[in-house]
Specification:
The complex is a heterodimer of chains A (about 450) and B (about 190). In chain A, about 75% of the residues lie in helices and about 0% in strands. By secondary structure, chain A is mainly alpha-helical. Chain A has two domains: about 160 residues; about 280 residues, Cytochrome c oxidase-like, subunit I domain (Cytochrome C Oxidase, Chain A), CATH 1.20.210.10. In chain A, helix 1 packs antiparallel against helix 2, helix 1 packs parallel to helix 3 and helix 11 runs parallel beside helix 14. The model of chain A has no long low-confidence stretch (mean pLDDT about 95). Chain B is mainly alpha-helical and about 190 residues long. Chain B has a single domain, classed as Cytochrome c oxidase, subunit III, four-helix bundle (Four Helix Bundle (Hemerythrin (Met), subunit A)), CATH 1.20.120.80. At the A-B interface, helix 8, helix 9 and helix 10 of A face helix 2 and helix 6 of B.
Chain lengths: ~450, ~190
């Protein structure tokens, strides 16, 4: 750790991992509810488990992104953080607001929560992933603005690099696009447009910039490759991500009542969204091959390579699978979407946050470069357990999805939704099993940070 | 001649990362062209009927404007190889003017269509015509911005006989924009 103020990142990373564990626990509850409908009912109904599962994901990733920014921006800008106090204060504000929101979901009916939080004054609740009470959303905006102010001023007073520029554009975009969640038009078509302006432009737009910049930072640090080369790649990756991702929003407009040309625009541009992910894979492997040092933190390199590959598979290949309008006509909203969602989020965003945590946490805890060999072995085991189980979750959901599409929408005698759900039960059981392995992997990841021992030092490549 | 012999031209010229970007861009256009071909094959009469309403003369002038502009970019690179920076910057300015000429004529075409109430929802042909040409139009704007940076750099003396990688890379991007138009023009305006 080069700058004292980088230490605020530690708080964010710990909270992120804690919430990640919570997310997976609720994922398992929900996974079981797919096959045992009344499991934990009425305490935790399916809709609540789902809301907690997805909301926790978003919140912990935001903690991860903010932690990453607080760690890498002082190092890139070569100066202390503008206000470490503000960063700590906002951490607690965000954590308490997040915790209260989750408790609200769990303890009172959603409509009561809406009443309690004065949703009628500015109605924003009730939309998937954006279920947070309006007051929480306002809190998120305050936290985001304070965060941007803090990192923005840090960059302004220090060295400006391409990595910080791209990261700041991504983070500013994240904050700006979230503002669309405050607009809740009566017209359902418009409602969907604005909803996608948050959801799509986050995960298939500005979040990709955040991912690419964090990846570039980790690669610079772990490979010792010239910054100039890495920055050049960063430019072309973000240019392609923006060209395909922004217009690619159109693949959500197929069936919402938007004009017909979106069938073409959405299909063509979103079909090309795998390109920036493919570039990221080539980039990551290329940089590791050209490495000038053998960094002793092997898990960090593994996560960095893993995120590039899994993002390409999950977001790129699994996204392409159902993005063309004639295909999506059948697959829309089936388990194919769930398969894509799981692997894309894991590959692109979970893994990049775990990569930066893996790289930074040993340094934040006072080590020179990395954890002990035993700790690294455990962490790499956790990498493989989580990654392989996620591959299986994706494959099982894909199997379920293909069967669902056929039985419910494609066959000569289509069956009703619930009848089909019974028929694909086996896939849900297998998915649940893979989910348990995922949780074991995650717990091992957490445990790996508590394994002591001596660390190794940086070896120069011959 | 002496200079040409002593300076080795590496392959591909310019920056490899930019070439990857160019390939990705070409892929985007390629998919769009394929979609056009697919849609046209199913609606030949409609496409032929509305293709006849396009202004081929203006499109031809624009083709000449882009080709000439590309020629000036090549001349600018040759000039820099001969260490003639002023000459190079003048050629780049002419190339930029070629690009601006394209934009002006293209906007004339667009304003004509708009006055007739044509938009993306009018029919499938116009949807493709407007989408493809506008997507290319945006690339011309980006290309001009790149040429402007190259022009400023050349005036500042950034490029030399030995080191002009940026100029070659930017030039390659402009040629890509030009080349895409060379496919787009016959595909949309002429082929029946």
């Amino acid at each position: 750790m080069k700058y004292e103020s980088q230490s605020v990142a530690k708080l964010y990373f710990i909270a992120a991992i804690g919430l990640f564990v919570g997310q997976i626990v609720f994922g398992l509850v929900m996974g079981l509810q797919y096959v045992m409908g009344d499991f934990m009912f009425p305490e935790i109904p399916f809709n609540v488990a789902r809301m907690v599962h997805t909301n926790l994901l978003i919140v912990w990733l935001l903690f991860g992104f903010m932690g990453a920014a607080y760690y890498l921006i002082p190092e890139e800008a070569e100066t202390e953080l503008h206000s470490p106090m503000l960063a700590k204060l906002m951490f607690w504000v965000f954590l308490v607001a997040g915790a209260l929101t989750i408790l609200g979901y769990l303890l009172v009916p959603y409509s009561t929560l809406a009443e309690m939080t004065g949703n009628s004054l500015l109605p924003t609740m009730g939309r998937e992933f954006l279920e947070q009470p309006t007051i929480t959303k306002i809190g998120i905006v305050i936290v985001a603005l304070s965060f941007l102010y803090n990192v923005g001023f840090t960059v302004l007073k220090g060295r400006k690099t391409v990595i910080t520029l791209v990261l700041l554009i991504g983070l500013a975009g994240l904050a700006i696009f979230f503002l669309f969640s405050f607009y809740n038009p009566d017209n359902l078509v418009k409602d969907k447009y604005y909803w996608w302006f948050v959801v799509h432009l986050w995960v298939e737009g500005v979040w990709e910039l955040i991912m690419a910049s964090i990846l570039a930072f980790v690669l610079i640090k772990t490979t010792g490759v010239d910054r100039e080369i890495i920055e050049k790649w960063l430019y072309i990756i973000i240019a392609m991500a923006l060209i395909t991702g922004l217009i690619g929003t159109g693949h959500h407009f197929f069936w919402i009542g938007a004009p017909e040309y979106w069938l073409w625009w959405g299909s063509i541009f979103s079909a090309l969204e795998p390109i920036p992910f493919f570039m990221m894979t080539v980039f990551a492997f290329n940089m590791v091959n050209k490495r000038r040092i053998n960094h002793p933190n092997q898990p960090a390199v593994l996560w960095a390579l893993g995120t590039a590959v899994m993002a390409f598979l999950g977001a790129g290949v699994w996204g392409f699978m159902h993005t063309l309008a004639p295909v999506n006509y059948y697959t829309h909203g089936t388990q194919i979407t769930a398969a894509h969602g799981h692997m894309a989020f894991y590959g692109a965003y979970v893994m990049i946050v775990l990569a930066i945590i893996s790289y930074a946490m040993p340094l934040l805890r006072g080590r020179k470069a990395c954890n002990s060999a035993a700790s690294q072995v455990a962490e790499m085991w956790s990498f493989w357990l989580m990654t392989i189980s996620m591959v299986f979750i994706t494959l099982f959901l894909t199997g379920a999805g293909i069967l669902q599409v056929y039985l419910q929408r494609f066959s000569d005698e289509p069956m009703s939704f619930m009848v089909v759900q019974d028929k694909i039960e086996l896939f849900y059981w297998m998915r649940e099993g893979a989910g348990v392995v995922f949780l074991i992997g995650l717990l091992l990841y957490v445990y790996s940070f508590f394994i002591g021992g001596e660390e190794r030092t940086v070896e120069e490549k011959v | 001649m002496y200079i040409q012999e002593t300076i080795k031209t590496k392959y591909p010229p310019g920056d490899l990362a930019l070439w990857i970007f160019i390939c990705a861009e070409l892929l985007v256009f390629g998919v769009f062209f394929a979609a056009y071909a697919f849609a046209r094959a199913n609606n030949i009469e409609l496409f032929n009927q509305y293709q006849a309403t396009l202004n081929t003369d203006l499109a031809l002038i624009n083709t000449i404007a882009l080709l000439t502009s590309s020629y000036f970019v090549v001349s600018a690179i040759i000039a820099i190889k001969e260490n003639q920076q002023q000459k190079s910057s003048r050629f780049l300015l002419l190339a930029i003017l070629g690009g601006i000429t394209f934009l002006i004529f293209k906007m004339t075409e667009y304003s004509h269509h708009m006055s007739e109430g044509i938009n993306l929802t009018t029919n499938l042909f116009y949807m493709f015509y407007l989408s493809l040409t506008f997507f290319h139009f945006m690339h011309v704007i980006l290309g001009i911005m790149i040429l402007l940076v190259l022009w400023i750099n050349t005036r500042k003396g950034t490029y030399t006989t030995e080191e002009h990688n940026g100029l070659v890379s930017g030039g390659a991007y402009w040629h890509m924009v030009d080349m895409v138009w060379l496919i787009l023009f016959p595909l949309i305006y002429i082929m029946r």
